[in-house]
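Weekly modeling sync, notes
Attendees: S.R. (lead), two postdocs, one rotation student

Agenda item 3: backlog of single-chain predictions. S.R. asked that every request posted to the team notebook include the full sequence so nobody has to chase files. The rotation student volunteered to paste the first one in as an example of the format we agreed on. Action items at the bottom.

Example entry:
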Amino acid sequence: MTQEELAHLSDCSYNYIGQLERGEKNATVKKLAQISRALDYPLSELFEQVEGLTDTKEKKEKNIPLRCYEILCSKPEKEQKKLLHLILELEDYNN
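Predicted structure, as returned to the notebook:
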């Protein structure tokens, strides 16, 4: 993927993507989330790659809140709102 393609898919400027790549700028969490969605790559795994952290598949599967967060972040805002509404309805139903 080119910088231009990533910029377009992540709704960032081409210059911004280049500055990130060269280490001239630090990305906000919001921008990182946009970029991770554009790359179809979970944000948590992006941080793991940067930090050089490794988790076993088994450990990741046990981290339910993290997995839920990854799924939620991978969806557009409209779908995120629907998922939140569903979770809140389930919580009300269980109470």
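Discussion: group reviewed the output briefly. The domain at 1-41 is CATH 1.10.260.40 (434 Repressor (Amino-terminal Domain)).
Action items: rotation student to repeat for the remaining queue; S.R. to check formatting next week.
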